[in-house]
Amino acid sequence: MSQRAVDAVFQALFLLTDIRALLRETAPDHLLDDEQKQQAARTLEKVQKQISILEKELVR
Amino acid sequence: MKCSGDIDVREVEELSINIDPIQAGGRLTPEAMKACIAYGDGYSVCDYCLKPFRLDYIKKPPIAEFHRDLAEWLHMDEVRVVPGARRGFQAVASTLVEKGDPVMLTALSHYTEFVSVEQSGGIPREIPTDEHNRVTADAAGMRIEEVMREFGRPPSLLFVEHVDYQFGNIHEVKEIARVAHSYDVPVLLNGAYSVGIMEVDGSALGVDFVVGSGHKSMAAPAPSGLLAATSERAESVFRTTKVKGDLTERTFGIKEVELMGCTLMGVTIVGMMASFPAVQERVKHFDREIAHSRLITDALLSIEGTEVQSEYPRRHSLTRIDTRGSFDKVAETHKKRGFFLQSELKKRGITGVIPGSTRVWKYNTYGLTDAQAQHVADAFREIAAENGLNVT
Fold first, then answer.
1. Which residues contact B271 (CB under 8 A, 6 or more apart)?
2. How far is CA B56 from the centre of its chain?
3. Which of B121, B293, B333, B360 would bridge with B314, disulfide CB 3.0–4.6 Å?
4. What is the DSSP letter of B218?
C-alpha cells in the first residue's frame, strides 16, 4: 500500500482543480493579472512536486 | 476532447462566459469539484453509516452537522436534503393534499409544483400577477376567498415563488404568508432561485416550508436540493415508516416515508456540503450580483427598441428581456436569421442564450467577475452597433 502515492494523486487533482477554477474566472480570454499568474505558477510547481512523488512511489 | 467513449469533455465554463438562465447558480465551487473527485463512487458517503442507518445521522463525512447548519442558516427547524426542489414539492404535497383539495399556486409557478399537486389529486388554483409580473398579497387573499366560495374550504397548501423562473422577480412572500395563515393555509416557499443566491430567512418570511435547489442555486451537482420545515410541520412531512411485512414481520426503522429512505448518497450531498461555506458567504454579497445584473440589463436597454419584461431596476440576476424591437429586427434580414445573436455572442466567448433567440429571452448574470460582467455588457452594445442599431 502506498498512502503517499494515493495522497499525491488526490493532491495533484485538487491542485489542477484550482487551475481549472482560474480558467473559469478568467474566461473567455484567460488574460491573467500578475497576482493570478503568480498563483498559477505556485500551483503548477506544487503539481510537479506531486508528480515527482508519484514517479518515485510507482515507477522508479 | 473526450471524457470516455463518445462523451465529450464539457468545457463550456472554462472557455466561455455562461449566462444560461438556469445554470448560473449551480456552477460548482472548486471545493465541490474536489469533493466530487473523491466521492464519485455510488454509496461513497455510506462507509460510516451506523445505526439508526439514516443519511442525516452520518457523522463522517459530517452530514448530520450539515443538516443542522442548513436549518440554522435558513432559520427553520428541520431540514432534509432531497434530489432536487421538485422532490421537496412532492413530499409536501403528498403529505398535505388530499384528493379533491384545492391547492393555491401562482401564475408563475414551475411545472413541477403543478405536477406535485396532480400526483396528490389536488386541484390547482392560481394567483394572478399584477401589471409588473409580481404576485401580491392582495391577489392571494382574493383568490383564497374565491376558493372558499368554490370549494367551501380553504386550500390545503399554498405555493409561492420567492423569485420566479420566468421573470426573476422577487415576490411579497411575507405578506402572502400572513394572508394565507389567516385562513390556516400552510405556505411552501419555492426558493429554487433564492436559497444559495441571496439571504433567505424562513422564520422572518413566516413560511411553513422552504424548498431550495442545490443544482440551480447552491453550487451543487444535480439532482440536489433541500426541504426545510418548521417543527410543527416537520412532524408530518418527515414522518417515519410504520409499515410491516405480513410474512416476515419486517419493519424499517426510522426511514422517512416521503423521502423513501436516504436521498443524496454520493457526489450530490458532498458537493452541496463542500460548496456550503462559499454559498453562505456569497449570499452576503448579493449586492455585487445585482450590480452586474443592472450593468448588463442597462447595456441592453441602451440599445434602441429593447425592453425589459422583468421588474426594473433589477433586484435579481435572472432577467427576461424583449428584443423584438432591436435584435429581432436585425434577424429579419441577417443571413444567419435568428441565429446571428448567438453566433455573435459565441465569437466574443459568451454562451447560454438559446440558439435562435432574438425575441423574448432570458439570461442570468450570477457569479460573473467584474471583468466578465463588463465584457458581456460591452458585447451586447458592440453587436447592436455593428448591426446598425442605435445605441445611446
1. B28, B32, B35, B36, B214, B219, B220, B221, B224
2. 22
3. B293
4. S
- CATH assignment, B43-265: 3.40.640.10
pLDDT in tens, A17-30: 999 999 999 999 99
Query: How much is the pLDDT for A1?
Result: 72
Count of H-run helices and E-run strands, chain B: 15, 14
Write the ipTM. Answer: 0.97
- pLDDT less than 70: residues of chain B: none
Shortest Cα distance, chain A CAs vs residue B283, angstroms? 18
Q: Which of B16, B34, B375 sits opposite A17 (nearest CB)?
A: B34
CA dist., res. B182 & res. B108, Å (int): 23
The C-alpha cell at B337 is 436569421
Domain that holds residue A45: 3-59
**B14 chain-A contacts, CB cut-off 8 A:** 20, 23-24, 27
Question: Does A10 contact B37 at a Cβ distance shorter than 8 Å?
Answer: yes
Structurally, at CATH architecture level, domain B2-25+285-386 sits in: Alpha-Beta Complex (3.90)
Q: Which residues of chain B have a CB within 8 Å of the CB of A18?
A: 30
Q: Shortest Cα distance from B357 to chain A (angstroms)?
A: 22
